[in-house]
Amino acid sequence: MPPPILQGCGGVIAYTVRSSGSLLLLPSPHLNSLFLTIHHRHLRAFASSVTAAKAPPCSSRCPTLRSFHFPQNVSLFLTGNSSFLKMERFWSGNSIDKNKAMVDNLKRYGVFNSDKVAEVMENIDRALFVPNGNSAYADTPMPIGYNATISAPHMHATCLQLLEDYLKPGMHALDVGSGTGYLTACFAMMVGPEGRAIGVDHIPELVETSIKNVEKSAAASLLKDGSLQLHAGDGRQGWPEFAPYDAIHVGAAAPEIPQPLIEQLKPGGRMVIPVGSIFQDLKVVDKNQDGSISVRSETSVRYVPLTSKDAQLRGN
Ligand code: SAH
Fold first, then answer.
1. Stated pTM of the model
2. Which atom of ligand 1 approaches the CA of 141 most closely?
């Protein structure tokens, strides 16, 4: 198996790699030494807890490809602040300029390449969805209360791109675990007034806030005309009223893919869902015309659990 390569990892806030052999860390040119030092520190910290794993020498600057060798199977959990967090300090201009700069950076460094995704992310200002006092444009998840987070911009961009072909004008989209409403708003912009974008979250207070967020955004008219709807409910049951869906996104990690969501996916449709507990994979579930499903893993991820309301509020 070739060694995993973390490329352009400036946009990665939490990245899990299961590796045996070597890990190649290929920094993008935009990464500054501080960011790499943070990564090294995590890598060293983890590596030192693994018997016989050799921690790489840590230098303050690391402009080129680094290869770290581990003599046994290890699981690496790399976390770090994003370069965007630091870059943001140097950005000037208004909110929309900063939002555009964030989107440009995600695209420039290869997180996504779709013009349609860039357009919708530029139109939906992330700052309207991130609680006040947070760095709205940093590439990191942010707490939104109730043991939930708004996902990092690179995850939003990744999911939008995976679902792009299933979010054409007139199509139906379901966003389970809609949280702040950010992605539901993006979906609504893509499917347009003749389509449907339905967000479901089981915390009624988050649903209320998400409605207020959307009302301030470029998707406000879609909320008003009903093509964008945000509901309180257990998203594991989907939202049968507007099924079948061309696109289903799940914003919380499920122990397994909920059957009602498979049933509510249209033949020819696609679901993107994180599956797992400690180690999670972002699964891409395609429903074939005969009703069978094909599942593949896109990447390793870290999401809050898709669970009961009580379990979430208890924090387990
Ligand atoms: N995608 C959203 C939120 C991600 S956090 C955003 O980026 O803003 C995951 C969300 O899933 C939380 O808001 C949490 O309340 C919700 N959630 C978890 N389990 C759920 C369930 N069973 N039904 C509905 N929502 C759920």
1. 0.77
2. 7
